[in-house]
Amino acid sequence: MNEVLLEVSNLRKTFGDSVAVDNVSFNLRSAEILGVVGESGSGKTTLARCIMRAIETDSGTVRYRSEQGWHELLQMTERELLPLRRQIQMVFQDPFASLNPRMTVEEILEEPLIIHRLGDKASRRQAVTEVLASVHLDSDVLSRFPHAFSGGQRQRISIARALILQPRLLVCDESVSALDVSVQAQIINLLEDLQQSLGLTYLFVAHDLSLVRHICDRVLVMYKGQVVEEGAVDTVFDNPKHDYTKLLLSAIPSADPDQRLAPMDRRLLNI
């Protein structure tokens, strides 16, 4: 079994009187794909942003294991955290909003290398070309701006930007939810290929349970900021224990076109 790469303990985040993340704890192992599911407002995205230090937490710990040992991310200064940001990258939900419209693709992909002071101009250009190839884009896109691309192409560029620093962990926050179904499948296949070829670890935040079952090894089910169920994907999907998990699974459309969708009545559940 692979070693634990990320350890989250008793993480809590509130916004005023609203508890967005309520004492969440879990481990993520190297080369594992861990799904985080739940309806809108369940705390999935807030959890991801807390782990990335995009927002500050109220309490709890987030420990990351680098080659040098364990680091408590929430206690580190930005200066101390910068080298570790190379190892933990994020792919955002909206490829239209996450790319700077005033920068060319080459500038977008080169920027992380410049921030981390990696390489000279020639080596950075080589790295940009190689990472584009890894997401199946040609180098002739380098001089173009984000508006010239489709949603799927923009998300490939976003993934390339995350990969250029050669991270170990990718936090994918609803990374395909803004895309058409056919394009979603292409990006999911790309993420799977990259995970296998590079040995990446994913924290995969999603509301589409079918996608989670397809790509993930384990799953956390969140409801009102809490993890109400956790386990291997097949175990949770085939034999859910918590009423909320049963509710979510009842809403998955059937492959049988003659079978009507009949989600469970939330009022009958003990949640």
Explain the overall architecture.
- The structure is a single chain.
- This protein has 271 residues and is of the alpha/beta class.
- The protein folds into two domains: 4-87 and 168-268, P-loop containing nucleotide triphosphate hydrolases (Rossmann fold, 3-Layer(aba) Sandwich); 98-164, no CATH class.
- The chain is 34% helix and 25% strand.
- It contains nine helices and ten strands.
- The chain has helices spanning 44-51, 78-85, 105-115, 121-134, 151-163, 181-198, 209-215, 233-238, 243-250; strands at 4-15, 18-29, 33-37, 59-66, 69-72, 88-91, 169-173, 201-205, 218-223, 226-232.
- A hairpin with a 2-residue loop joins strand 4 (59-66) and strand 5 (69-72).
- The two termini are 34 Å apart.
- The relative contact order is 0.16.
Weakly predicted, low-confidence segments: none
Q: What Rg is obtained from the alpha carbons, in whole angstroms?
A: 19 Å
N to C succession of SSEs: EEEHEEHEHHHEHEHEEHH
Q: Report the span from N to C terminus.
A: 34 Å
| Beta-strand content | 25-35%
Helix content: 25-40%
Structural class: alpha/beta
